[in-house]
Amino acid sequence: MAFDGITIASLVQELKQTIEGGRISKIAQPEKDELLFTIKTFRSSCRLLVSASASLPLIYLTDTNKQSPLTAPNFCMLLRKHIGNAKILEVSQPGLERIIELRLEHLDEMGDVCRKRLIIELMGKHSNIIFCKEDGTILDSIKHISAQVSSVREVLPGRTYFIPHTVDKEDPLSITEEKAAQVLRSTSLPISKAVYQKFTGISPIMGEEICHLASVDPDKGAADLTEPEMIHLVHTFAGVIDEVKEGNFTPNIVYEGDFSEWDEEESSLSSAQDPETYSDDPELDEALLKETPKAQYDWSEAEPVEFSALPLTCFNGERYRARAFSSISQVLETYYASKNTITRIRQKSADLRRIVQTALERNYKKYDLQEKQLRDTEKREKYRIWGELLNTYGYSLKGGEKEITCLNYYTNKEVKIPLDPQMTAQENAQRFFEKYNKLKRTYEALSQLTQETKREIDHLESISAALDIALQEADLVQIKEELMEYGYVKKRRAGSKKPRITSKPFHYRSSDGFDIYVGKNNYQNEELTFKMATGNDWWFHAKGIPGSHVIVKSQGKELPDRTFEEAAALAAYYSKGKGNEKVEVDYVQKKAIKKVAGAAPGFVIYHTNYSMVAAPSCRLEEVAP
């Protein structure tokens, strides 16, 4: 993620235009490391979200409010006391550091004018929000850093604030091109890494972008660049920094997805009509963003992979597209809203995933061992035949032989049978029959055990697929209930309240107006197939791989081909084959689907079906509940 000094510079420019000169009317602390300011300006009011989270530090303007705790934390109370009605005099950024400073003016208890500084450091795990006097004396911070935690700088009340310079980096805003070239030549690092490690405020992705713009191999050693390559690179770097100095920002998010159909639909648009195409006129771009309908492409289908305050031309593959926004706050809110959802659900489901994965690995090993043992029993028939042949031809043995060669009347070929010379022919035959019977019993037992293990693997893989589909915390409740029912998770104590199930299947409407339902887990698959669907409704499922049941309500009509294709695409998308280009999908009318006796929920059998190959896609708009 490119939350670097360039993104901060774009944010500072936006904050200067929106909140500078405004007054802080409300201060809330929704999370232990997060603040939400409500700021009133002459034009309107807005909210500023500031987070010092180690995993997700950010700051942006938002319209979304957050619920605050009933009792405000101490840091929030301190800010309310001092700057509850403060005026924002200035928003600034020191150099190209990942730091934003708000200079505030307020009245103290005596009515005298005072000035304070609120310093927001967005430095990954070292992020912090520090409240200081005008002279830099720290009053408090949202995170206290003692000498035991950091030998570089203490962040405690009474200490003097300063920016730690733990790494010797050059300021790209003030450095000359000649000096920049000298700095880059002094290292043996790959050139893209040298760019972001030797200059303040440059992220790895921006280092890649600068190399891409200069047509220089990013993996080439900085010291190995030719003189023309170095001159062109440094000049390109200076051009990027000039854009930052002049405030020519183009906030955007780069998405990865299937844009093939969209490209065909949009290919007739000129660059002036396409809101995603950057023109040379920023005002025109902003006007187009407001005027152009947003329904040209459903961006929720694509995955956000990177954001930036400047265009990222290094993402130039067919699966990448940049979406322009009118402000960097919109970029951050949109990007982190989707990333946050995925991250939060991943965190919430981490324990369930670990349980499922552990059980799967154990069953995979068990299944492999059982399969090996089962293969070993394949020679059981050989021992039975040897025993029968010895009973037939054993009369010719005189005793003490180590083998006998005789005709196998099952194949009409001669066979050599090894013998124990200490045993008679009848005793050798009996030994072979005992081996045969033992392997036969092993085969019968293993055949049943192997089937049971395979069913358990299929069940666990279906739960794993359901965890991949889960988008909300409510979706995890039914999955946990299923894991409890089958003994993978400890059952709740007797008398404890069962959680309320609020998760519902996905509901889409085909282009021809037919309702399509997609189960999110095995319980929903079971309910869709055997309770919601009627005999003539159509059932879809990815062939031979775990996935969702997809039901198309036929309404007693014949489905058009387009609806079949859209339903098959959904079945492929909501399956373990989602990452494949094509997935084979079985489809059949519901009346041909039978429940497997004693099987886990969602497991069915069918004997007559149709099949088609579909590209995994979810291009239909979900119907609101």
Show the helix and strand layout.
Blueprint: H1 5-18, E1 23-31, E2 34-40, E3 45-51, E4 58-62, H2 74-83, E5 87-92, E6 99-107, E7 113-121, E8 128-133, E9 138-141, H3 177-185, H4 191-198, H5 204-213, H6 227-246, E10 252-256, H7 260-266, H8 282-291, E11 303-308, E12 320-324, H9 328-348, H10 350-376, H11 380-393, E13 403-408, E14 413-418, H12 425-469, H13 473-485, E15 506-509, E16 515-518, H14 522-532, E17 538-542, E18 550-552, H15 561-573, E19 583-589, E20 594-595, E21 604-605, E22 610-614
Summary, kept brief:
By secondary structure, this protein is α+β, with helices and mostly antiparallel strands.
What does this structure look like?
With 625 residues, this protein is α+β, with helices and mostly antiparallel strands. Helix content is 37%, strand content 20%. It contains 15 helices and 22 strands. It has a 6-stranded antiparallel sheet. Helix 3 packs across helix 6 (227-246), helix 4 (191-198) packs across helix 5 (204-213) and helix 11 packs antiparallel against helix 12 (425-469). The radius of gyration is 34 Å and the shape is elongated. The chain starts with a helix and ends in an 11-residue tail after the last strand. Mean pLDDT is 87; it is low at 264-280 and 287-295.
